[in-house]
Design a protein that fits this description.
The chain is mainly α and 198 residues long. The protein has a single domain (2-194), classed as Orthogonal Bundle (Lysozyme). Helix content is 63%, strand content 0%. It has 10 helices and no strands. It has helices spanning 2-23, 35-41, 47-57, 61-72, 92-102, 115-132, 137-146, 148-157, 170-189, 191-194. It is globular, with a radius of gyration of 18 Å.
Amino acid sequence: MRRAILVAATVVAVAATLFALHRMPTDRYARWLPVPLARAVYPLEHDGLIREAARRNDVDPALVAAVIYAESGFREDAVSSRGAVGLMQLLPSTATEIARRTGGERFVVDDLRDAAVNIRYGTHYLAALLERYDGSLVEALAAYQAGARVVDRCVARGAGAVRIGDIPYADTRDYVHEVIGMTRIYRRAYAAELGGQE
């Protein structure tokens, strides 16, 4: 009986911890979250596709995994209310432009439901944004989530790099915080799978 109570108490404690983590900003616990718990809370799928796309585009694979988790929770069939499709939630117009620039002559919007295509195009887009904003992760992630026009207006208003607090939309500020925190988590928790260092 004591053992059953101990097991039940442990299950409740773990469930409460998982619930609390999902309500807390990721960057607050990214450094101390134990790897087994991180792997339970933040799954990783398609690690081979992520590694390859990241290598081809010179992007941190942990960043790609974090964007996928933030955008779709690794659901290939995800479609947003704005029409963004797939793992990395690409708008069809963005994907069509990427296909045109990268030689995807037979691309059709339904291809975005394919993990390989979505990760390849999404990582290409993320790399293009990082290049556009001179490597600024904050600016690139804000543009990925809210659009480049929003970030361009922030850049035009300020002197120097855009900080998270300069972003005009709360949901975009939260997104940038979350992805940066999750990148740290994915880098630590999946160093072997993503080819990074802990």
